[in-house]
C-alpha cells in the first residue's frame, strides 16, 4: 500500500508543474508587432551537388609552428 501511495504522490508531484505552464486566455498580439514575417525562400543545392574546393584557397589545416 505504501509503495502505491509513494508512486501516486510522485506522479502528482511530476504533473503539477505541467499544469502551471501555459496561458489560460487566448494569446494576444503585442502592440506594434510585425508578425508574422515573410521570410525569403532560399534555394539550397540538392544533396550531393557540393563543389570541390579550389586548389588556390587557403587550407584549414594548421601549418607548422615556428
Automatic annotation (TrEMBL):
Its localization reads: Cell outer membrane
Q: Does the keyword Transport apply?
A: no
Tell me how this protein sits in the membrane: Lipid-anchor
User: Where is the segment annotated Disordered?
Assistant: 45-66
Print the keywords alphabetically: Cell outer membrane, Lipoprotein, Membrane, Palmitate, Signal
Q: What is its main location?
A: membrane
- Signal peptide from the UniProt entry: 1-20
Instruction: Give the domain of life.
Output: Bacteria
Question: Is Nucleotidyltransferase among the key words of this record?
Answer: no
| Name listed for the protein in its UniProt record | Argininosuccinate lyase
Q: Which organism is it from?
A: Paramagnetospirillum marisnigri
